[in-house]
Amino acid sequence: SRYGPKMPLAVDCTAELIRCKVLDSSGRLKSHELILSYGLALVRFVNLITERKQKMVSIPLRQLAREVDIPIWVVDLRHELTHGKLPRLALCRKGCDVVLDWLRKTYWSRQLGNNLCEESEDEEQEGVEANAELDNDAWE
């Protein structure tokens, strides 16, 4: 509330993604509606976060995402949501979880003194394996 109409991007993106998860768990929306809801939140996240790094010369989103450590498959998911066939709901849910984790590590942990970033090696390895699986299988 201290920011008024100029909410920090990470706060705005987190709120939209959490709103999607709440709507999803409510059971009130159909699959197609959830895909559109998650899709809008994911597209806005990628666009808003990478927009700050955009220069006078247009830089590809994949390169910008790589610079801020956003998984490339999330950028590909954004591309499909924007320009292609809508993906499966499961992929949108996974994208939301990955992006919320990125926001937690990149933004929220700094706000709360890094207490949220302490992961065990097992959790970190599971995340690496899940991302590798998505990179290979997500678009089949």
Explain this structure to me?
- It is a single chain.
- The chain is mainly alpha-helical and 140 residues long.
- The protein has one domain (9-111).
- Helix content is 70%, strand content 0%.
- The protein has 6 helices and no strands.
- The longest helix is centred in the last third of the chain and has 23 residues, at 89-111.
- It is globular, with a radius of gyration of 15 Å.
- The termini are far apart.
- Residues 120-140 have low confidence and may be disordered.
- It comes from Aegotheles bennettii.
- Residues 118-140 are annotated as: Disordered.
- This is LAS1L protein.
- One of its GO terms (cellular component) is preribosome, large subunit precursor.
- GO terms for molecular function: endonuclease activity.
User: What percent strand?
Assistant: under 5%
Quickly count the helices. Answer: 6
Which structural category do the helix and sheet elements fall into?
mainly alpha
Mean pLDDT: 81
Largest sheet: none
Helix content: over 70%
Cα separation of the termini: 43 Å
Order of helices and strands: HHHHHH
Number of domains: 1
From the spread of the alpha carbons, the general shape counts as globular
Low-confidence stretches: 120-140
Measured on Cα atoms, how large is the radius of gyration?
15 Å
Counted beta strands: 0
InterPro entries: Las1 (IPR007174)
GO molecular function: endonuclease activity
GO cellular component, one term: preribosome, large subunit precursor
Region (Disordered): 118-140
